Amino acid sequence: MRRGSWRIRILIGLAIVAFAFIRRCSNQEENPYTGRTQNIDMTAEQEIAIGLQSAPEMAQQHGGLYPDERLQNLVDAVGQKLVKSSIANQTPYEYDFHLLADDRTVNAFALPGGQIFITYALFSQLNEAQLAGVLGHEIGHVLGRHSAERIAESTFWQTLATGASVGGDMGNLVAGIGQNTLLTNGRNDELESDELGVLFMIEAGYDPYQMIEVMKILKAAAGPNRVPEFQSTHPDPENRIEKIQEAIQKYSGR
């Protein structure tokens, strides 16, 4: 490669990297519901639109909705009770709760903007208070804007990797660092959502200690071959139980 071309590539790469950092700094904002400063580059309305657009496909991947309207109504009633009795009611998000037909995958998850799902495989193992703990945790992901934050972080690292690739041969290394950062932040998101879930349970009149029972159910479902914590986006259930106990002590006196 000619020396002049090499210098141009370096300058272009540096410009892309600088753009990534400038954009990241300009997107910093404080979450009004958690008080945490986050890197966010979309509005609440955009989060809602993404969630509504993605919801049908996500349901289809888990066999569609569970064909029992009574159980669907129970999930929705518990979820709405949590929303109405907490700060979640003050957010612009449109909370909808869905029971999925999947009877093999023990899981629950939230899309940006308020679309929340729980599989029948998990639902069938829970009492109402434990269901409230699971749904409260997922509400925490929504108002914590965790998906929007992950999208913004992913965009930042992709842009950074592009700049590193243009300027040299460091693109794959930078992308790998970005993936590790996302994993670490994901664990923090889970712990933040656990704490919010405890708070929402208490405010709705549920026994917050039932959240600990949920952790035991999740640990049993994972079995002996659970992925080590350092390779997972989720903290180990034992560590989560400790943090949940701290959250219960923190909010029980309110």
From TrEMBL:
InterPro entries, per database record: Mito/Outer_Membr_Metalloprot (IPR051156), Peptidase_M48 (IPR001915)
Free-text comment on the cofactor: Binds 1 zinc ion per subunit.
Alphabetized GO MF terms: metal ion binding; metalloendopeptidase activity
Protein name: Peptidase M48 domain-containing protein
Domain Peptidase M48, first and last residues per copy: 72-247
Highest taxon above the source species: Bacteria
UniProt keyword annotations, A-Z: Hydrolase, Metal-binding, Metalloprotease, Protease, Zinc
Similarity field: Belongs to the peptidase M48 family.
GO cellular component: membrane
GO biological process, one term: proteolysis involved in protein catabolic process
Cofactor or coenzyme needed: Zn(2+)
Stored Pfam families: Peptidase_M48
Gene3D superfamilies xref list: Metalloproteases ('zincins'), catalytic domain
